[in-house]
Amino acid sequence: MGTSDEAGGQNRAGDEPEEASTSGDGETTVTEEGSELERSIGLTGGLSIGIGTMIGAGIFVFPGLAAGDAGPAAAASFAIGAVIALLVALPASELATAMPKSGGGYYYISRALGTLPGAVVGISIWLGLVFATAFYLVSFGSYAAALLSEAGVNVAGLPIVGTLALLFGVVLTVVNLVGTENAAKLQNYVVGLLLTILVVFLSYGGLDVLGVFGSESTPEQFLPFGVMPVFTTAALVFTSYLGFAQVATVAGDIKDPGRNLPLAMVGSVLTVAVLYVATIFVATSAFGSGRLATFGETAMVEVARAFVGDAGAMAILLGGLLATVSSANASVLSTSRAVFAVSKDALLPTMASRVNLQYGTPHIALSMAGGPVLVLVAFGRVEVLAEVASFLHLVMYGLMCVALIAMRRDEPEWYDPDFQVPAHRAVAGTGAVASFGLIAFMQRESQIIGVAIMIAAAGWYKYYAGDVRLKGAL
Amino acid sequence: MADERSETPMTTDSHTIREPPRLLIPIEVLEGESISASLVEFLAPAEVVLLGYHDLPEQTPTEQASMQYEEKARTAIDDIADSFRGAGGKVETRIAFTHDRDQTVDRVAAEESVTGLLLPNPVGEIEEVIVPIRGAIDVDRLADLVATLLEDGSRRVTLWGLAEEGDEFDAEAAVEYTRNTLSERGLPDDQVSTEVSVAESPVWDIIERSSEFDVIVMGEGGPGLLASLFGDPSERIAEGAVAPVIVVRNR
């Protein structure tokens, strides 16, 4: 690629990368023509995007599956995930404060490492988010089905989970296409409610397990299946940590990004990590991992029933519905932003960044999020969906760490982050190795799908936009 | 900027304006919102900041919308600006893409240190202006504004004091003080009339009488429980009334 600092080149349709915004401060970005772009998401909003995206999977879906694979040591799997997420969140924060633009990881990688890695990440993160959304929707289906059977509706023998997930996927896509005014505020309340339910439940469960009420439960062996499953489970449950980078995809809307972006990313990872580890501890203590595994995705409902009775089960059911919905919705929105960032740079047809004249929403980008999701929901295998999503995100995370090291080495004139990672080589280096390393522990099937998507993305880039230059262009 | 102006009083003809009024006019420009010719003519004596804004659904990044709509918004706001220039007014324009209209309007109002804010409503010929006075209001700014807008002598203003039952607010004194300040600013007494009434719900009373007048000029009103539940009184009035509302900002 060229060394010029201008974005340039043309794609097959003759479009060039658009450079929209240039300068700005903590409250607005100002475009070249002088229009102001208001930043309207504060720290609470940023945290709520991060936590809201992540919490659905880790608490309400994985405990049963993870305990079945790794026993009580699943708590360690979640801790490993948290460490990797933090190692990536720090470099991501620095890059985000230096380039507070919509698009997140794709943007940093394309500017620091060049168009090919950028294009591969940009396109595969679009599909990675599609896989993640499908995973959240299937989980939603499990909770909705559990709620139906709780209500006494007999659904035995019907493909009820997939049907509910599909239906809800359609609803979500349509709602976003029509456009919403206050969904973000609602999301803040939903996340607040979820955190409240979880803290109450986990404190009660934790005290109970420790023998404060009733008898102390005997802990089972911590590593019933050995060490290896701890890592394969970490690879599986890493999907629970995909949300923090979604904060960076809305970086262009975040107020005072120099302060709020790092706080929101690191803060949301720490918050969910503590909750995840506590959840596994409480859940495996309540039932023993073998029994827990038989409950599958909705294991937490049974855990709550064991501690607090039917009221607890209902609270967790409600929590699971809210959490999976908020994860799915946040992912659809991030997907549409990821598509926009890539198409703005002429790596996808610029059509995709069109805004609908009637509803004012980016209908093509949203359809490119919602449409493939429905196909994957029909495919319906939770563990593969989750792992492919993690795979594609981990590639981006690893490359973000590499991008940080490259940026610090090249120090372009415009590179002036408000937040700087201490010992950046060690942090980003470890982050990159850990991110790529975790991929090795995934199922073969997920690895094949992930690699195929990346190769297809590279092929598309060569075919469609081989002349586009992005490196170094802010 | 604002400080310089307030330190150098401008003298025109017989009256003295302390701080030439500066009005912010937010216009949802891509929704086809506009300002009628009679309102342009009425407001032209003040300095005007036109803010063309586009309030986006949460799904749409501001950058994405700006790429598509920037030119259209600029053309539309420039047309409106030209109509002000045609009426002899001084005008500046700004364009903003936002997810939160109130945040944008407040920010621009502060940055431009405007003395007032227009909440548009349809209006015909402008002859009668009403100033409901319900409590603390920046009388200096209000008087500068009203005296400037009414300087050509063809329009009348009614100062209307509203006290709530059992309220400590002395509406009569406030109206008298405002009338004196207006007179100091050089507005002839025969253009001013006053009245005072006891109101159960000032907001509703003002909305109900709005059809008798062409423009409402009022204070911002402080924060309060009702305001946080239902929105600012001025916004509720603009919503219900048939006249444009000019809100005088607190300092």
From TrEMBL, chain A:
UniProt-listed InterPro entries: AA/rel_permease1 (IPR002293), APC_superfamily (IPR050367)
GO cellular component, one term: plasma membrane
Keywords: Cell membrane, Membrane, Transmembrane, Transmembrane helix
Topology in membrane: Multi-pass membrane protein
Annotated Polar residues bias: 20-32
Alphabetized GO MF terms: transmembrane transporter activity
Domain of life of the native organism: Archaea
Record's subcellular location: Cell membrane
Residues passing through the membrane, by range: 47-67, 73-92, 113-138, 158-177, 189-207, 227-251, 263-287, 307-328, 388-406, 426-442, 448-465
Predominant location category: membrane
Protein name: Putative fructoselysine transporter
Species annotation: Halolamina pelagica
TrEMBL record, chain B:
SUPFAM superfamilies with a match to the protein in the record: Adenine nucleotide alpha hydrolases-like
Classification via InterPro entries: Universal_stress_UspA (IPR006015), UspA (IPR006016)
UniProt cross-references to Gene3D superfamilies, sorted A to Z: 3.40.50.12370
Coiled-coil stretches: none
Domain of life: Archaea
Every UspA domain range: 166-249
UniProt-recorded name of the protein: UspA domain-containing protein
